[in-house]
Design goal:
The relative contact order is 0.04. Helix 3 (24-59) packs antiparallel against helix 4. The chain starts with a helix and ends with a helix. It is mostly helical. It is 73% helix and 3% strand. It contains 7 helices and 2 strands; from the N terminus they run ααααααββα. The protein has helices spanning 3-11, 14-18, 24-59, 64-122, 127-152, 163-183, 219-236, and strands at 206-209, 212-215. Among the domains are: 23-124, Helix Hairpins (Orthogonal Bundle), CATH 1.10.287; 126-156. Pfam families: Snf7. One of its GO terms (biological process) is protein transport. Belongs to the SNF7 family. It is found in: Cytoplasm, Cytosol; Late endosome membrane.
């Protein structure tokens, strides 16, 4: 049986047996300290390996004995470094497992507190009273809805008049206002003197329609404008 097995099976000191186990916080703190110590050991071994390599290169074949001793020391340091890597992996796994266990324990503890609080709250509750209360609330909501519907309905006071008669009366009032406005309109008087005549252009005819003058455009003037446009287009081309 190895020393480690005897230790875990009861080979510890009496003080360790009499003392209670460490708390999760204490164990996690110890594991982090161990990880930090091993990390520093890794840095030390890596520096020693680089140093032994430099010594081996320095001596080379000129001093084979010294060079070989340096390489042997490098191999031992590399072996220790590999062992430390494995130990760090184990400690890291143990630390993560302990952290998860501690977290689960705290979660379960808090859930237990919450369950006890809910149980204490529900002790003073009667399901029959709750059903009666909910029924009363529903009835009062129905009454409130009926009151709201009654208030929101449009009042029908004075709706006994015929809407067709009212529309006819409104149209008569509008027609009276329109006729009154037409009577107030003053049209301009037609001049008594004749318009002056021009020898080179045709006098536009004047037509009176309901008091308004409509002037026909002169045909000759339009022809002259078209001739000028044709001359301008020919010059531009």
């Amino acid at each position: 049986m190895s020393k480690i097995s005897r230790f875990f099976k009861g080979g510890g000191s009496a003080a360790s047996k009499g003392r209670a186990g460490p708390s999760p916080q204490e164990a996690l703190s110890r594991l982090r300290e161990t990880e930090e110590m091993l990390s520093k050991k890794q840095q030390y071994l890596e520096a020693r390996i680089e140093r032994e390599l430099a010594v081996a290169r320095q001596h080379g074949t000129r001093n084979r004995r010294a060079a070989l001793q340096a390489l042997k020391r490098k191999k031992r340091y590399e072996k220790q470094l590999s062992q430390i890597d494995g130990t760090l992996s184990t400690i890291e796994f143990q630390r993560e497992a302990l952290e998860n266990s501690h977290t689960n324990t705290e979660v379960l503890k808090n859930m237990g507190y919450a369950a006890q609080a809910m149980k204490k709250v529900h002790e003073n509750m009667d399901l029959n009273k709750i059903d009666d209360l909910m029924q009363d609330i529903t009835e009062q909501q129905d009454v409130a809805q009926e009151i709201s519907d009654a208030i929101s309905n449009r009042a029908t006071f004075g709706d006994e008049f015929d809407e067709d008669e009212l529309m006819a009366e409104l149209e008569e009032l509008e027609q009276e206002e329109l006729n009154k406005g037409m009577r107030d309109v003053r049209l301009p008087s037609v001049p008594s003197t004749s318009l002056p005549s021009r020898p080179d252009k045709m006098v536009p005819t004047v037509t009176l329609i309901d008091g308004y003058c409509l002037f026909a455009a002169s045909t000759r003037r339009r022809a002259e404008d078209e001739d000028e446009m044709k001359k301008l287009a020919a010059w531009a081309s």
